Amino acid sequence: MDERTNLFGNREADNRGIARSAGMIGGMTLLSRFTGLARDIATAGFFGTGLAMSAFVVAYTIPNLFRKLLGEGALTAAFVPVFTGWLKNRGREESWRLAGIAITLLGLLLGALVALGWLVIGAWSALFPLDEKFELVARLLPVMLPLLFFVCLAALAMGILHSFRRFAVPAFAPIAMNLVWIGALFFLSPLFGPDPRDRIFGLAWGVLIGGMVQLAIHLPPLLREGFRPFFKVDFRHPAIRRIAALTAPGILGLAIVQLNVVVDKFLALLISAQAPASLFFANRLVQFPLGLFGIALATASLPVLSAQAAEKKMEDFKGTLSYVLRAAFMITLPAAAGLIILRRPIVRLLFQRGEFGAASTEATAWVVIFYSLGLIAFAGAKIVAQAFYSLEDTRTPVKVGVGAMLLNLTLNLLVVFNPWLRENLAEGGLALSTSLAAFFNFLALAFILRGRLGRLRGREVLAGLARAAVLSAAMAAAAGWTLGRVGRFGLPAGFLFNLAAVAAPIAAGAAVFILGGLAGRVREFRELRAAFGRAEPSR
Fold first, then answer.
1. Alpha carbon distances (Å) from 357 to 276, 352, 361, 405
2. Residue 539 has pLDDT above 60, yes or no
3. pLDDT for the residue numbered 309
4. Taking 70 as the threshold, does the pLDDT of residue 400 lie above it?
5. Residue 70's closest CA among 251, 299, 257?
6. Given a cut of 50, is residue 403 above it in pLDDT?
C-alpha cells in the first residue's frame, strides 16, 4: 500500500480510521482530562472561587482568545484542508516548504501582537482608574499575554501533524501543560507570598512555561516526518495566498466571536467577584466529556472529510458526517444527563477542600446545569463546522458564529442588567446564554449545509439522537434512584460518602445504558464495534 493509499482510503476504511483515531485521541485525551482534573482540583484547593482565581480566569481568557482565533480558528481550519491537498498532490517536500513559510509568517504576526498587547495594557492602566478586581487583571495580563505566541504555534504544528494523521503527540501535549500547571501551584506560587492575590502570579508564570513546553513537544514528530525549520517570508506562495484568502474573511468575524468570550468574563465580574471562577470550574466539568469524545471525533474526522471533499465523494462525505454526529450524540447526551443529576456530589467530591467551600460548591453546581444543557450542541457545532472547513469554506461558520455571538451577548446583557434575572439566575444565566447560542450555531450550520449539499441523512441523525435520548433517560433514572439511596450505605460524611455518591450512581447508570444499547441492538453500538473490529457495520 503506497503513501497516498495510507493517507486517503475508502469509506469503510475511513470510518474505521475515524473511530480508531478518535479512540486513540480519546485515550490520550482521557489521560489529559485526568491530569487536567488533578490540576483543577489542586487549583480549587489553592484559590477557591475568590477574587484571585476570578482575575486569573479573566486574564487567561485573553491569550485563549488568540488561540481560538489563530490557533484553532480560521487559520488552522483553512490550513489543514489546503495542506492536506498540497500533500496529496505535490508531495512531502513541497508541503514542508509550505509549512515552513506558514510557521514563519504566523510567528512574526504573533510576536507583533504580543508587543502591541503590552503597549495597550500599559496605556489602559495609566489612563483609566481601576477598582481592585480589574487592577489585578491588568497586572496579570503582561505575564500571560506571551502565552498566545506559544499556544498558537503549537496549534499550527498540531494541524500539520493531523494532516499526516498523526494524532498521538498533539493529544499528549495538553498533558504537559497540566503537569507544569500543577507544578507551578505547589512550587512557584508559594514563592510569591501568603496572599492569594500574590500567589496567583506564580500560577501565571507556570502557565506561560507550560505553553513553551506544549510547543516543544510537537517538534520531534515534525522532524521525524521530514520537517526542517527555516525562516522564509513568502506572501506570493500560491498555497499561502489560498490560506490567506480562506482565512481573511473569517478573522474579523471570529475576532468578534472570541471577543464576546472576553466580554462574558468581564460581565461575570460585574455579577460578583466569584462568578468568573464558578464559571471556570463548571465549564471544566462540562469540557471533560466534550473534549474526550465530541472534539476527539471532530478532530479525527477533519482529514477524512477533507479527502472525501477533495475527491468529490459527496455521498461518502454525508455518510461520514452522519456517522460522526450520531456517535457524538450517543456519548454526549448521557454525559449531559449524568452531569445534571450528579452535579452536587461531583463538585463536592472533586473541588470542596481548602479555599473551595460549600458556597463555592453550590455556585459551581448551579452553573453546571446550564452548561450541560448545551453539551450536544457544543459537540454538534464543532463537527458540522469541520464539514465546512473540509469544503474549504471558512466564511459560513464565522458568519453563523457571529450571529450566535450576538445572541449570546444579548442574552448575557439581559441577565446582567435585568434585576430579576440577575438575582435568580446569576452566573447560571451566563452559562444558559452560552448553551442557547450553541444550539443556534449548530442548527443554523446544519441547515445551511443541507441547503448546499442536499439531504444530509437528517432522519438518520435524528433517529440516532432519539435512541440516545431513550437510553439517556433510562440511565438518568437509574443514576438518580441510586443517588437517593446512597445515604442508606451508612457511610460517615466525608470523602468516602462523596465518592460513593458519585461512583455508585455512575456505575448503575452506565450499566443500564450499556446493557440497554446492547439488548436493543442499537445501531451506533454496532457501528462502533464494527469500526474497532473487523466486522462491517450493519446497514
1. 16, 5, 6, 33
2. no
3. 79
4. yes
5. 251
6. yes
**Is 365 within a domain?**
yes
Say which residue the cell 460578583 belongs to.
Answer: 272
pLDDT by residue (tens digit) across 244-254? 877 766 566 55
Per-residue pLDDT tens over the stretch 261-300: 677 788 898 898 899 999 999 988 888 777 666 666 666 7
Look up the domain containing 479 and give its range. Answer: 3-532
Measured in residues, the chain has a length of 539
Concatenating the DSSP letter of every residue in 412-455 gives HHHHHH-HHHHHHTTHHHHHHHHHHHHHHHHHHHHHHHHHHHS-
The total number of structural domains that make up the chain: 1
Predicted local confidence at residue 21, as pLDDT? 60
Residues 382 and 391: their CA atoms lie apart, in Å, by 15
Residue with cell 522532524: 223
Write the CA distances from 197 to 42, 115, 138, 194, 256, integer angstroms. 17, 25, 13, 9, 30
Residue 507 maps to a domain = yes
Q: Which residue has the higher pLDDT, 371 or 96?
A: 371
Asked whether residue 243 is assigned to any structural domain, the reply reads yes
Residue 538 lies in a domain: no
**Nearest to 507, CA basis, from 536, 534, 483, 489:** 483
Report the alpha-carbon distance of residue 208 to residue 120 in Å, rounded: 20
As a whole number, mean pLDDT of residues 515-519 equals 89
Q: Give 20's Cβ-side CA count (13 Å radius).
A: 13
Higher pLDDT, 329 or 16: 329
Q: What is the DSSP letter of 292?
A: I
The answer to whether the beta carbons of residues 243 and 102 sit under 8 Å apart is yes
**Sequence-distant (≥ 6) Cβ neighbours of residue 228 within 8 angstroms:** 96, 100
H helix runs in 272-394, sequence order: 275-289, 295-310, 314-341, 343-351, 358-372, 375-390
Residue 59 in grid coordinates: 486574564
Query: Which one, of 358, 362, 380, 102, lies nearest residue 247 by Cα?
Result: 102
* Spatial distance between the Cα atoms of 112 and 452, rounded to a whole number of angstroms: 39
